[in-house]
Specification:
single chain, 277 residues, alpha/beta, 7-stranded parallel beta sheet, 9 helices
């Protein structure tokens, strides 16, 4: 098989050239890795995050590699901020082909030490924020499609970010787990309600990922052993491990996939490390 045929086939399936992608949480460890990859594959990426300084660094890297991106401050779950970011994206690019709901926060605490403030903040960013921005984008693309000929209609792909905690739980992650279980349910709801508009929704579902925010767990002998014992591949996941699935969900290669939890966890949910026989 010639390299040209291989290249053309991969391009047809996985190219993101000229797709407009709005990504929340673009300044985080996983979010920044994903948006840089999207830009490298030809997408026009709107970086939306609360951390403007970190977002500017991501923008600098993307543009240094010849990619196209725009930064917009986003405060989740404030509806005014959500509407402003979506409206400005459409004003600049005319459409949104992919919505990547990557933004997420956590605060590990026992349920008996929980508070209304902690609950509202985590649910607000992780679930309510994704819910509201998805609705805003979907409504705008439905309205836009009413004015477009069939061959130019937007086939919106939504990539929510769920979690290992959407399916299994770790102690101290109760509210985070509630929010991510909600994201999983929201993904299925979006898939069945919006299929008639040609829209899809899937959830990138990471397992135990090593980032600056989880370093204290991976550096602890007890917690790191606990996690590694439950990962078949016997290593942490890294933000770069999310890229293949993130590209699949955003690209036309997943045109017949919707409502799925796309689990990337090194074999954790499959059963983890095998017993010695």
């Amino acid at each position: 098989m010639s390299k040209e045929v291989i290249t053309n086939t991969l391009y047809k399936l996985f190219s993101l050239e000229n797709k407009v992608i709005l990504a929340t949480g673009a300044a985080g460890a996983i979010g920044s890795a994903i948006v840089k990859c999207y830009a490298d594959l030809g997408a026009k990426v709107v970086l939306a995050d609360y951390n403007e300084e970190a977002m500017a660094e991501v923008e600098k890297e993307i543009k240094a590699n010849g990619g196209e991106c725009t930064c917009m401050k986003l405060e989740l779950p404030k509806e005014e901020s959500i509407n402003e970011v979506v409206d400005k994206t459409i004003e600049k690019y005319g459409r949104i082909d992919v919505l990547a709901n990557i933004a997420g926060i956590n605060k590990r605490t026992l349920m008996t030490n929980g508070s209304e403030e902690t609950f509202d903040r985590i649910i607000g960013v992780n679930l309510k924020g994704s819910y509201l921005i998805s609705i805003k984008v979907a409504k705008e693309m439905i309205k836009l499609n009413e004015t477009l000929p069939e061959e130019e209609k937007v086939h919106l792909s939504i990539m929510n970010v769920a979690s290992y905690n959407s399916v299994m739980m770790l102690g101290g992650n109760s509210v985070y787990g509630m929010s991510k279980s909600g994201v999983a349910a929201m993904t299925r709801s979006q898939a069945i309600e919006w299929a008639k508009y040609g829209f899809r929704s899937n959830a990138l579902t990471p397992g135990h990922i090593s980032t600056k925010l989880t370093a204290q767990l991976w550096d602890d002998p007890y917690y790191s052993k606990y996690m590694l014992d439950r990962i078949a591949m016997n290593r942490p996941g890294y933000p770069e491990d999310m890229l293949g699935m993130a590209v699949l969900i955003a690209s036309d290669a997943s045109a017949y996939m919707s409502g799925q939890l796309c689990i990337v966890d090194g074999g954790c949910l499959a059963g983890g490390q095998p017993w010695e026989i």
